[in-house]
Design brief:
121 residues, seven-stranded mixed beta sheet, 11 strands
Length: 121
């Protein structure tokens, strides 16, 4: 199964910003949607944001609305997540995913390896 590759994570202070990027292939990018999930240590993986392929429709988890922005570049087969006003509770491994539209991880067929984002107080 093909994997997506995330980049752009790291350590940032609370209130700062990080931009994540996910590189796909023509096949993974042709799925109905691409999205971002995150998983903190010892916690369940949770939905963050999605963007559809055809229309660019977006949907966000409540806890990131107004702070995070998902976007995609169809020419480059990439999807980005701009994260602003970061909080310590945003600390997690962030995963890029591609598949059917939805907030459940089971809707997605392809996954990146995950990238760490750590927000210090």
């Amino acid at each position: 199964q093909e994997q997506l590759v995330e980049s752009g994570g790291g350590l940032v202070r609370a209130g700062g910003s990080v931009r994540l990027s996910c590189a796909g292939t023509a096949r993974t990018y042709s799925t109905s949607a691409m999205g971002w999930f995150r998983q903190a240590l010892g916690k369940e993986r949770e939905f963050v944001a999605i963007i559809s392929r055809a229309s660019g429709r977006t949907y966000y988890a409540d806890f990131v609305k107004g702070r995070f922005t998902i976007s995609r570049d169809n020419a480059k087969n990439t999807v980005d997540l701009q994260m602003n006003s970061l909080k310590p509770e945003d600390t997690a491994v962030y995963y890029c995913a591609a598949g059917a539209w939805g907030t459940e991880s089971t809707r997605y067929d392809y996954w990146g390896q995950g990238i760490q984002v750590t927000v210090s107080s």
